[in-house]
Amino acid sequence: MEKKKSLCIRIPDREIKLMDIILKTTSTIPSPIINTEENNCLKKYKNKIDETQNNKYWDSVKKITNDYELIHIPSNKKKK
């Protein structure tokens, strides 16, 4: 059996250069950066979803149009 060949490059410690890291701490929580216009638009359309008369219809459309929507649906639902 042949031994696998590998390439290893060794850099002398004196040639390794690391960036300086400066950490700043604070006891206050920064306020989130939110695009107000975009956020208001998103809320508007989300509220329209809640106004739909047939929520089951919306739920099935959502699952068809978004492949990732099905990830969070439990597969062991109790059958009636």
Question: Explain this structure to me?
Answer:
With 80 residues, this protein is mainly alpha-helical. It has a domain at 35-74. The protein has 2 helices and no strands. It has helices at residues 36-50, 55-65. It is flat.
What features would you highlight for this structure?
80 residues, mainly alpha, 0% strand
Rg, Cα atoms, Å: 27 Å
C-alpha end-to-end distance: 60 Å
Q: What is the approximate shape?
A: flat
Order of helices and strands: HH
Low-confidence stretches: none
Number of helices: 2
Q: Specify the structural class.
A: mainly alpha
Q: Mean pLDDT, as a whole number? A: 79
Main β-sheet description: none
Count every beta strand, where a strand is a DSSP E run of 2 or more residues.
Answer: 0
Proportion of residues in helical segments: 25-40%
Report the portion of residues in β strands: under 5%
Summarize the structure.
The chain is mostly helical.
Question: How are the secondary structure elements laid out?
Answer:
Layout: H1 36-50, H2 55-65
